[in-house]
Each structure stands twice: as C-alpha cells, then as structure tokens.
C-alpha cells in the first residue's frame, strides 16, 4: 500500500500539483486555469483511502464539501491558492478579501496575512453560502418568468396583446 501511494504522486498530506488546463472543477466542471483562485480538498473515503478533488473557486469547494457526509472528518484538508502568488495555503487559516473577479463569481480571494476588512474562514463560508442562495433565488425567478412567457405564447396572440395593452 505504501508503495502504491508513493508512486501515485499524491502527497501523504497537503495539496497536490494541479494539471492546469487539463483538470476540471469537481463541482461545476469548468477547466482549471485560474492559478490564484483555485482550491482543493483532500479527504478520506472508506475502502479507498485518501482522495483529492480540485476546484476553480473556493466557493465551489465549500459548497461541494457541504454536501459530503464526511464533511466534518478532522482528516479533511482544504487548500486554497493565495490570490497574490498562487501558493497553496490552508483554507481554514487563510483570510479572505473581496476580490474583483473569481471564476465562479463568489468574489473572495485568499491570502495568508491578515488585512483590514478581511473575512476569516467561517465568515467567508457564510458569504459564499449567501451568494449561492441569491444565485438560486435569481435562477428560480428567471425560471418562473420563462414559464409564464411560455404559457402566454401557448395562449396565443390575444393573451399577449392583452398584456401589452394592460387589459
């Protein structure tokens, strides 16, 4: 078993090398190209051992992790790229600043050193969940509007004319 892990290129702990432009985010399936917003999770699966999943944004990583039964396993490691240089840092120890542009729009960049106004891991996680909730709400509203438009189209031109004239 030790030989298998040693030959796999997967480290015993910590982040692993990502094959940029060749691997996809575990959650959204977008190809990983952004070296300063990527994240990865190292976790234990019974009968399989330790595994790694990579993500294009810390938001994708935390939302994916939240859905896992083993999310609170103390062996689970979360790594995030430093927004300034791409070096891997422990996501739970990082601070998060509002960043101008992240791959999935969660808007948080990580760094190791504290700065005024930065969020700790727990506050960053809640901000990501709130952002996702607003995306889901917007998506539900859009779906409802599209369904209403489809119903009106099926009702024919007279229903559409009534809407335009306010009748």
Features:
single chain, 167 residues, alpha+beta, two-stranded antiparallel ribbon
Produce the secondary structure layout.
Blueprint: H1 2-8, E1 39-45, E2 49-55, H2 58-66, E3 77-81, E4 88-90, E5 95-98, E6 108-111, H3 121-155, H4 157-165
Antiparallel strand pairs: 1-2, 1-3, 3-4, 5-6
Work out the helix count: 4
Largest sheet, if any?
4 strands, antiparallel
The largest beta-sheet arranges its strands as 2-1-3-4
* Shape assignment: elongated
Which structural class is indicated by helix and strand composition? alpha+beta
Distance between the termini: 75 Å
What helical percentage do the residues reach? 25-40%
Number of domains: 1
How much strand content do the residues show? 15-25%
Residue runs with pLDDT of under 50 for 5 or more positions: 1-8
Task: Give the strand tally.
Answer: 6
Report the oligomer: single chain
Rg result:
21 Å
The overall pLDDT, averaged over residues, is 87
Helix-strand pattern = HEEHEEEEHH
Structure description:
This protein is α+β, with helices and mostly antiparallel strands and 167 residues long. The chain has one domain (2-165). The protein has four helices and six strands, in the order H-E-E-H-E-E-E-E-H-H. The protein has helices spanning 2-8, 58-66, 121-155, 157-165, and strands at 39-45, 49-55, 77-81, 88-90, 95-98, 108-111. It has a four-stranded antiparallel sheet. Strand 1 and strand 2 (49-55) form a beta hairpin. It starts with a helix and ends with a helix. Mean pLDDT is 87; it is low at 1-8.
């Amino acid at each position: 078993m030790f030989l298998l892990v040693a030959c796999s290129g997967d480290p015993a702990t910590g982040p692993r090398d990502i094959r940029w432009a060749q691997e996809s985010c575990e959650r959204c399936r977008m190809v990983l190209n952004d070296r300063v917003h990527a994240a990865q999770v190292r976790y234990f699966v019974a009968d399989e051992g330790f595994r790694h999943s990579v993500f294009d944004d810390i938001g994708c990583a935390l939302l994916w992790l939240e859905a896992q039964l083993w999310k609170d396993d103390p062996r689970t490691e979360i790594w995030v790229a430093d927004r300034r240089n791409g070096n891997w840092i422990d996501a739970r120890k990082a601070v998060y600043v509002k960043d101008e542009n992240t791959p999935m729009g969660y808007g948080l960049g990580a760094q190791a050193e504290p700065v005024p106004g930065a969020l700790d891991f727990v506050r960053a996680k809640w901000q990501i969940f709130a952002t996702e909730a607003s995306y889901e709400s917007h998506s539900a509203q859009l779906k409802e509007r599209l369904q209403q438009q489809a119903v009106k189209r099926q009702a024919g031109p007279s229903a559409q004319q009534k809407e335009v004239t306010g009748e």
